[in-house]
Amino acid sequence: MRDPVRIAYFDGGSGISGDMTLGALVAAGWPAAEVEALPRRLGLEGVAVEVSAVRRGAFAATRVVVRVEETRQPHRHLRHVEAMLDGADLPEPSRARAKAVFRRLAEAEAAVHGTTAEKVHFHEVGAADALVDVAGAVEGLRALGVERVYAAPPALGRGSVDTQHGRIPVPAPATALLLRGAPVELGEAEMELTTPTGAALLATLVEDWSGPPPFTIERIGVGAGGRDPKERANVLRVTIGAARGAASSGAPLRRAVSVLETSLDDENPQVLAAVAASLLEAGALDAMLVPVHMKKGRPGTMLVVVAEPARAGDLAARILSGTSSLGVRVRTDERWELPRRAEEVATPFGAVALKVATLPDGSERAVPEFESVRAAAERHGRALREVSEAALAAWRARAPRGG
Prior knowledge:
Layout: E1 4-11, H1 18-27, H2 32-36, H3 38-42, E2 47-56, E3 59-68, E4 76-77, H4 78-86, H5 92-113, E5 121-122, H6 124-143, E6 148-151, E7 160-163, E8 166-169, H7 173-178, H8 196-205, E9 215-224, E10 235-247, E11 253-264, H9 269-281, E12 286-293, E13 299-307, H10 312-322, E14 329-337, E15 340-347, E16 350-358, E17 364-368, H11 370-380, H12 384-397
Parallel strand pairs: 1-6
Antiparallel strand pairs: 1-10, 2-3, 4-5, 7-8, 9-10, 11-13, 11-14, 12-13, 15-16, 16-17
Helix pairs in contact: 1-6, 4-5, 5-6, 5-8, 11-12
């Protein structure tokens, strides 16, 4: 019999940040020495990590503080961060997940400032701090054996906050973009509760916002934020347990999804193609255009969208505002899916991202990510198939992956 899936459930009712996540994982059993060693493992100079026991309101919690000597931190862009992670003393799955978090964070910041992810500048101190937070979060989850991450709607906060760009509203623009389509709440506190780093972690790690399956609680960790307001304990609780009724490794996982459908016979096909693409960008799991015969024998198109239940309302609104549809049908289905993870391999054409699925017999199957393949092919003027085959060959030739 297969072991149950180990899951982590993030309760961000008081928000989430990188340091709160590290504190919660240490409190849940990740050795403090591993956290304190992160600057060395990342090759960061002038950075130290301190772990301590504190109280927030009535609760005992673990506080992790990253101390950074500002004068020893260079300017860093996304390529510098990715290069540091490539050279870090971390398992490959943790490096790949950390890079995915930073890529998502950079894309959100780029959208806010009207530039590209590659041109986003991470503030000297903030870059070092975020490197420890992000790498530590993904490595801590891996070390604790977590395979899937779920989360309650995080509290974002209200009001405004002072930044290097001046005073900005809360939630910060990047935070709001990162959590677009996810269920959230503002909370009552007039302060920033969820930071962009915390939002990037959730946006990358949480695959299903509909809630976890039934599970047996094994560990509970409470991480503390830097402030200690009287109104509400500034803590993040992470619960780790074994999901009942779900198998681990290669056994298919079952989850609920929403299926949205609308049939149209008066819409421009070019518009439909653009809408389908925009729905995928907005978080849909899949979007399809299916030829159908409608009333009076008219040819038409059915737009079918598969999404997490929490995103159904937002996606339905996008369909209604972006097409000639007067109504969208929504139903809840069950979907069986293989466990998968993101990886990246080095090829003669540069780094290429892959999605690796674990099959029921424990074997693995890799599929190159099309956009990554296309970008590499365009950079080098090579055929898509050549780049894709090179990525698969590099993946097969690598040393056995493990955690």
